[in-house]
Amino acid sequence: MERKFRIALLLLIAIAFVVSLYIIVQRVEIEQGDQNLDVAVEWAQLQSFAERQGLTDDEALAMLQDKVTAIIFKEQLFSELLANGQATVYSPVDLRFSLARGEVDVHDENGVTLSEADVSLESNYYIFASEAALDSVVWNLDAKRMGEYQTYVIETGGQVFPFLETNFPIASLLDVGVGFNQESMEKVASFGFRIIPQFRSWPSYQERDMAKLLEPFANLQMSCVLFNDASLPGMELEGEDFTAAYQDIAQAFSALDVPVATIEFFNQKGMSSLMTAYNNEMVRLHVITDSEITTMTKDKALDRYLLAVNERNIRVLFVKFFNTMDFESNVEFLGTLDQALIDDGFTLAAPVSIPDVQNNFALLFLIALGIAAGGVCLLDLLRLRKVGLVLAALLLLGVLGLLCLIGRYWLLKGWPYGGFDLPDLGVFRWRRGRGISGIHCSPFLRLPISLRVRLLWLASWGMGRSLCCAWMLFPVQKSLCWPDLVAVLALNHL
Q1: pLDDT of 271 over the 60 cut
Q2: CA-CA-CA-CA torsion for 397, 398, 400, 403, nearest 10 degrees?
Q3: Positive or negative, the Cα torsion across 60, 61, 62, 64?
Q4: Is the pLDDT of residue 390 over 90?
Q5: 3-state secondary structure 84-110
Q6: What CA–CA distance (Å, rounded) separates 467 from 38?
Q7: Rounded (5°) CA angle 287-289-295
Q8: Residue 471: how many other CB atoms lie within 10 Å
């Protein structure tokens, strides 16, 4: 009886191990097919570095054609328009005095003149340097439904400028995104680069807001879409309004068939909800921050980029220029990075989200049986068989409850508020908001099998004295790796 009991436990462990290997093979094959990635730089920084070296935009783009595959355009704030001289504030009081003295003439497109009495102290007035700047602001005020506005033309000193009146508070308008430079994006697209727009958030999201904002990108080749702020649009909504807003955003992206990019190490509120609504159509982006790049060597930056794409499924690299190098030196670094990525088997092409693999619940339950059997083996060695059986039963009930109550979202789409990772032995990984896309083949699999067996044996020595089921239900490091744990238990008791 004793022998049969142990054989039954070891058989369950062996079955779980085989099932785990089957799941691993499926997922490794998916990982191997996910080799497309974009190397991107920011348009504003590109222009800045090119100007330092006396290069035109066209010359700079030509130098980057075989080094970069995408250009990131960050949505401009209204405060930035004011700072760079594209717009200026005209206070209502000053406007009244100027009209009264006849220093300016303000009229709309129909020739209707704005008189001194028409100037409202509750409104804000702005002069723009160009029609394009005004159009961009008006487009966004309309798309984001931020107050009422009226456009005019103001004549002063023999010059004519676009003029805007709006009742939207200036304090709120300063931090609102006012669109992208369409001419610059079309120029970049003409050189063969993909576009990555980075949207700012805005208050009071309403139906079809995102669809309206995406209209200028309909004829542009896009890589993915980014959000800039810590919270996504619509986070202030509640209940059904919140759900409807994120379904609306997802539909807008789906219409253009473009994935959303999540920024690694930057948790944005609302992203997990958007991923749920958008069926996890996303890619992961890695960037070295401005503060980090100032103290980083080229070799260290190169290692970090390569580690990100090889180890963490990053499929968009946002490369910041080194401030200590000129434009040509940064272009040379990009060439080195491209070659290293190609040598590692990656293709510089539009990234795609990895499709979900619908694992059979029965297979997952078989794995749980193997882990429960391993826990019983551990406690049996300590002469605590009954305790082991009780805990194993509780584990299986817990797993069954998760499968039935929480369902496919938890197991197949990823835990919405955290990540699961066992980096030293991880054969595959679950990541926040990534679902199947976050599953990753560890370098552990690349080691010789004899070394892997030794490492697993050493790991089992340290882990073998802890309760398997407790470790699974309450992961101290938020780690979950079924196949490795089964392998550890099997090696520990065979």
Answers
A1: yes
A2: 170
A3: positive
A4: no
A5: CCCEEEECHHHHHHHHHCCCCEEECCC
A6: 44
A7: 120
A8: 17
